[in-house]
Amino acid sequence: MAQGDRIWRNARLATLDPDRDGLGEVADGAIAVRGGRIRYAGAAADLPPDLAADAREVDCAGRLATPGFIDCHTHLVHAGHRAREFQMRLAGASYEEIARAGGGIVSTVTDVRAAGEDQLVAESLPRLAALKAEGVTTVEVKSGYGLTVADELKMLRAARRLGDEGVTVVTSYLGAHAVPADYRGRAGAFVDDVVIPGLEAAHAEGLADAVDGFCEGIAFSPGEIARVFDAAARLGLPVKLHADQLSDLEGGALAARYGALSADHLEYLNAAGAAAMAQAGTVAVLLPGAFYVLRETRKPPVATLREAGTAIAIATDNNPGSSPLTSPLLTMNMAATFFGLTVDECIAGLTREAARALGLQDSVGTLTAGKAADFCLWDVTEPAELVYRIGYNPLAARVVRGVADNTLEPRP
């Protein structure tokens, strides 16, 4: 019997199996794990007897089991903070005003460039610990605060090292995040001199799982992003895009044209963009933390996304400026309260659809046979509690590859 080979019994399952209705709930469920993968997840009465032979059993005491949470959009690796900008926003400054005054993304660049790789890891670990404490088993981490080839690679190396902390880390190269001061007014030259060479170097070193960009008036034009995406295509790397956050530059349609894994933010997404994303299989990743911190009033067009059939995921967007958020539970509450997502959409958005947004739908995101045995056990009476409560964490156990990183205690 290998480590992690066990049967988790007496659980209420929210399998997120797309072949089941809603959250794919099973009232009296069992999860059979062998070799770190799910061999069976369903009704305990239908558990194949051969899977139970010689397996250790864990009594889940009626707890709710969900797939492990997947935070599919973060800027987790960074140095320093931007609390002063928070004060500026309270005084009335806009995101664009702060950025054009030399704040915003570019202000973090100074801290990241001054930090060594070890420091970046050390500063990121507490943020990662906070995500794990609320059930995250997979996290995407972007570069984008170095804005030189060497510093972008440094960020990606630090992100890879976080994968030693009991979590799956997926990296995105975000060289086209902001235009540094020495290239101000010359974004196209920055793409040629830094972004594309950095992308090629990251790929050569095996540091990038995907390529991202920020398509916005304060960042990069659709044409400049297209050049980055063309370079990604030549290297065989999938793409994703910060799109239509502050204005309608048809970023959603651009992402869809390149078959992007996701387009993220999307407050100004138009109906044609939503339809193009649905047809391309590009997931809409909504980021309520940034909406909240920036005190935006324009909401993502959720009804339009639903009508088009566009898959919807949600994420913390953890970053030092516009979303210093490390709570996936609060992210779900915000997505429901601000954007009107249903309970099912919120939970699916942090599991099944988030996996699709990272191209990991074949390995994580649902409690189904063949997937990694990454799941969470919660002390709640129904799934809606995960979305409804504020400032309360009912996590009883986080299980990674079939092994819990804490011991189950009796239910209160």
Summed up, what is this model?
This protein has 412 residues and is of the alpha/beta class.
Structure description:
There is one protein chain. The protein is α/β, with parallel strands linked by helices. Helix content is 36%, strand content 21%. It contains 16 helices and 16 strands. It has helices at 49-52, 83-90, 95-100, 105-114, 117-133, 149-161, 187-204, 222-235, 251-257, 271-280, 288-293, 302-308, 328-339, 343-349, 352-357, 384-388, and strands at 6-14, 25-34, 37-43, 56-59, 64-67, 69-71, 136-142, 168-176, 210-215, 240-243, 262-265, 283-286, 312-314, 375-378, 395-400, 403-404. The strands form two sheets. Strands 1, 2, 3, 4, 5, 14, 15 and 16 form an eight-stranded mixed beta sheet that branches. Helix 5 crosses helix 6, helix 6 packs across helix 7 and helix 7 (187-204) runs parallel beside helix 8 (222-235). 56% of the residues are buried.
